[in-house]
Amino acid sequence: MAIKTLEVTLSPQVLAAGWYQDPATGQWYYYDEEGNRYVYVAGYLYPQVQWEPAPKVVNVRHDDTLKILVSFKYSGPAKTLKLRGCIGNLDTIWPYDFDEVLFAWSDSFTLPKTLDPTTFNKEVDILITTAIADGKSYSIYAKLEDGISFTEGKTGSVALRDAIFVVSAEPTFTDFKIEDYQKV
Questions:
Q1: Is the pTM of the predicted complex or chain greater than 0.90?
Q2: For the chain, what is the mean pLDDT?
Q3: CB contact at 8 A, 139 and 88
Q4: Which range is least confidently modeled, 44-53, 103-112, 123-132, 163-172?
């Protein structure tokens, strides 16, 4: 069993509030003043998960472990949390959400009281099981949990599209050679 590592930084994409159109699909999106994203469908705005292309692809096999490393800044009173790591896909059916297939939590940890924004680094390990198919790409995201709400770029990451690829566990043959030959 091997541990594969992928590092994620919780940093939001900064866009001015307003309407944006995807040049590839023509789909309209709205970004509000707080950085929340909405998709425009049938005259209504629906909240949307932000997706970004993964900076790299990590190849994994069943029974490997994916380690997701995150960094974030925190200031405030001492707080006990867990980090949740998720592997899944973009749900292409409304409301365009992240379909979690595999997930895991880190052990609980306590952030100390701090008045100044302090950077923390944490990690979570996700065991790769047969719940995800081989020969396919999957996306990932991570978020802090236990008594706090999810806010992209603050308490959770954007989803990284196609961050891992599950390598097929096909049987392999090696060292095939003729040992001997003779007249019979």
A1: no
A2: 83
A3: yes
A4: 44-53
Higher pLDDT, 73 or 37: 73
Give a three-class secondary structure readout of the chain. Answer: CCEEEEEEECCCCCCCCEEEECCCCCCEEEECCCCCEEEEECCEEEECCCEEECCCCEEECCCCEEEEEEEEEEEECCEEEEEEEEEEEECCCCCCCEEEEEEEECCCEEECCEEEEEEEEEEEEEECCCCCCCCCEEEEEEEEECCCCCCECCCECCEEEEEEEECCCCCCCCCCCCCCCCCC
Cα separation of 121 and 144, whole Å? 12
- Give, in order, the Cα–Cα distances in Å from 21 to each of 34, 73, 143: 19, 32, 28
Let me know if 60 is exposed, middle or buried by CB neighbors in 10 A (0-12, 13-18, 19+): buried
User: How does strand 37-41 pair with strand 44-47?
Assistant: antiparallel
Q: How far apart are CA 69 and CA 153, in angstroms?
A: 15
With tokens 């790409």, the residue in question is 137
Amino acid identity of residue 109, one-letter, is F
Count of C-beta atoms within a 10 Å radius of residue 127: 13
Residue with tokens 């043959």: 173
